[in-house]
C-alpha cells in the first residue's frame, strides 16, 4: 500500500515546466518530506497529490488506484496548510468537527468521540470553546493538526505548516507532529524549504530543484551520499565547501591550488570539484609566508566555533568548524587542509565519490 508518483509533470503555461518527470514511491505509514528552494514546485506537487491542481502528464496512484481524475474528497486524504485555513466564526471544537460533519457518513457520537480524542492528542481540550482569533499561532496550528487527526484519512499532506511560528515554537511543534505521526501511523507527506525540518523528521526526503527530483533517500543517505553538488550544498550548516581540484602528475590531488589531499580513486582528467564539510577541514595558524588563507570572521556557538576564511589565491570563501577553545580571530593567517573524508564531484557536479557507500553505513 503506497502512494506512487510516475513521471508526474506540470506546466501552468506552455513552455514553462514547473515539474518534470517526478517519480517516487511513498510507503504507507512513512514520514515523507519534499524539500527544495523557494519556487521549485513543492506546493504544486503536494496540490497535485491532493487533487487541488491538475497534473499535466504522468500518473498518481494511491493504494494501487490511479487517482488522476478523482476529486480531492474522494482521495481519502487530509491537508494542513501554512495558513491553518480555520473558520474564524467557528469554535475550536466545530473547526475540528467540520469536515467530519460535512461528509455525513458518521453518527453524532462517533464525531464527538473523534473530535474529543483529537483535541486531547494535541492538548487543546481546555480551549475547545474558543474562536481561532483567541488562540496563539501555535494553538491555531494545533487545531489544524487536530482536524487532520480527527479525520480517518490515512494520508495527511502538510504544506509548510510551521513557517508562521517563531523558532522555539517551531521546534516544539516539529516534535509534536513527529510523535503524532508515529502514534497514529499516518502517512505524512510534508513540504518544507527548511533542510533542518527535513533532516530531523523524515523517513525519506525528496529533494526538488530545477523542476526535477535531485535525489530521494533517507536523511543519512542525503547527507553522506548526496547525488550531486546541489544536494550536498543544500544540507548542512554551514554548507559544504566546494573547491576546484586537479590531479597532479605525481597522482596527488591539488585543491584550489592551495593544498593537497589524498584520495584513493580514479578522478577525471582536467578540472573537477572537491566537497569538504566544515567539520572535515583542518586549520593551523602560520606565518603569512606559509599561509594559504586568512580568517575573515569567527562565530562562537558555545560548543564550537565557525571560522570563516578566504583562500589566498582566489578569495574563495570557506567555513570551518573548530573546537570552541581553538584560538582563531579575524586577520589570522592560516594554513588550510582537509581530512580524507571528502566528496568528489565531476565537472558537472555529479557525485562520483568511490567510497560514499561506506560513508552512509558508517
Ligand atoms: N496557479 C499558478 N499559475 C501559474 N504559475 C504558478 C501557479 N502556482 C505556482 N506557479 C509557479 O510554479 C512555480 C512553483 O511554485 P510552487 O508554489 O509550487 O513552489 P514552491 O516550491 O512551493 O515555492 P515556495 O517554497 O516559495 O512556496 C513557481 O514558479 C510559481 O510561480
CATH topology name of the largest domain, in short, is Rossmann fold
Percent in strands: 25-35%
Taken in chain order, the helices and strands follow as EEEHEEEHHHEHEHEEHHEEEEEEEEEEH
Which descriptor suits the 3D outline? elongated
Rg value: 25 Å
The hetero molecules present are: adenosine-5'-triphosphate
What helical percentage do the residues reach? 25-40%
What's the pLDDT, averaged over the residues?
90
Main structural class: alpha+beta
Main β-sheet, in a few words?
6 strands, mixed
Low-confidence stretches: none
User: How many strand elements?
Assistant: 20
Number of domains: 2
- Please report the number of helical segments: 9
Distance between the termini: 31 Å
The name of the CATH superfamily of the largest domain reads P-loop containing nucleotide triphosphate hydrolases
The CATH class of the largest domain is identified as Alpha Beta
CATH architecture of the largest domain: 3-Layer(aba) Sandwich
Largest beta sheet: strand ordering: 6-7-8-3-9-10
List the helices and strands and how they pair.
Blueprint (H helix, E strand, L loop, with lengths): L1 E12 L2 E12 L3 E5 L6 H9 L6 E6 L2 E2 L10 E4 L11 H12 L4 H14 L15 H14 L4 E5 L7 H18 L2 E6 L2 H7 L2 E6 L2 E6 L1 H6 L4 H6 L6 E7 L5 E3 L3 E3 L10 E5 L4 E5 L7 E8 L3 E8 L5 E7 L9 E6 L4 E3 L10 H6 L1
Parallel strand pairs: 3-8, 3-9, 6-7, 7-8
Antiparallel strand pairs: 1-2, 1-4, 4-5, 9-10, 11-12, 11-14, 12-13, 14-20, 15-19, 16-17, 16-19, 17-18
Helix pairs in contact: 2-3, 2-4, 3-4, 4-5
GO cellular component, one term: ATP-binding cassette (ABC) transporter complex, substrate-binding subunit-containing
Protein name: ABC transporter ATP-binding protein
Keywords: ATP-binding, Cell membrane, Membrane, Nucleotide-binding, Translocase, Transport
Amino acid at each position: 500500500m503506497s502512494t506512487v508518483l510516475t513521471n508526474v509533470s506540470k506546466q501552468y503555461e506552455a513552455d514553462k515546466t514547473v515539474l518534470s518527470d517526478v517519480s517516487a514511491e511513498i510507503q504507507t505509514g512513512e514520514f515523507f518530506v519534499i524539500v527544495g528552494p523557494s519556487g521549485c514546485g513543492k506546493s504544486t506537487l503536494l496540490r497535485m497529490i491532493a487533487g487541488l491542481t491538475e497534473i499535466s502528464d504522468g500518473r498518481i496512484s494511491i493504494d494501487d488506484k490511479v487517482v488522476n481524475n478523482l476529486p480531492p474528497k474522494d482521495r481519502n486524504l487530509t491537508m494542513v496548510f501554512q495558513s491553518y485555513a480555520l473558520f474564524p466564526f467557528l469554535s475550536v471544537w466545530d473547526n475540528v468537527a467540520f469536515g467530519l460533519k460535512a461528509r455525513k457518513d458518521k453518527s453524532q457520537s462517533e464525531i464527538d468521540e473523534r473530535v474529543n480524542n483529537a483535541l486531547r492528542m494535541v492538548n487543546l481540550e481546555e480551549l475547545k470553546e474558543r474562536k481561532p482569533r483567541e488562540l496563539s499561532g501555535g494553538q491555531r496550528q494545533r487545531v489544524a493538526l487536530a482536524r487532520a487527526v480527527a479525520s480517518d484519512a490515512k494520508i495527511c499532506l502538510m504544506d509548510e505548516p510551521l513557517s508562521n511560528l517563531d523558532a522555539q515554537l517551531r521546534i516544539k511543534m516539529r516534535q509534536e507532529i513527529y510523535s503524532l505521526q508515529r502514534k497514529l501511523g499516518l502517512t505524512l507527506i510534508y513540504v518544507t524549504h527548511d533542510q533542518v525540518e527535513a533532516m530531523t523528521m523524515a523517513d525519506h526526503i525528496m529533494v526538488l530543484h530545477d523542476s526535477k527530483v535531485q535525489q530521494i533517500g533517507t536523511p543519512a543517505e542525503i547527507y553522506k551520499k548526496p547525488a550531486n553538488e546541489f544536494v550536498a550544498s543544500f544540507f548542512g550548516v554551514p554548507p559544504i565547501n566546494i573547491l576546484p581540484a586537479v590531479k597532479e602528475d605525481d597522482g596527488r590531488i591539488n585543491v584550489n591550488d592551495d593544498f593537497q589531499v589524498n584520495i584513493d580513486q580514479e578522478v577525471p582528467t582536467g578540472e573537477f570539484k572537491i566537497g569538504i564539510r566544515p567539520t572535515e577541514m583542518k586549520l593551523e595558524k602560520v606565518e603569512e609566508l606559509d599561509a594559504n588563507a586568512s580568517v575573515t570572521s569567527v562565530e562562537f556557538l558555545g560548543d564550537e566555533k565557525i571560522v570563516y576564511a578566504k583562500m589566498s589565491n582566489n578569495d574563495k570563501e570557506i567555513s570551518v568548524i573548530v573546537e570552541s577553545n581553538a584560538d582563531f580571530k579575524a586577520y589570522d593567517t592560516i594554513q588550510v587542509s582537509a581530512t580524507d573524508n571528502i566528496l568528489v564531484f565531476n565537472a558537472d557536479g555529479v557525485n562520483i565519490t568511490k567510497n560514499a557507500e561506506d560513508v552512509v553505513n558508517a
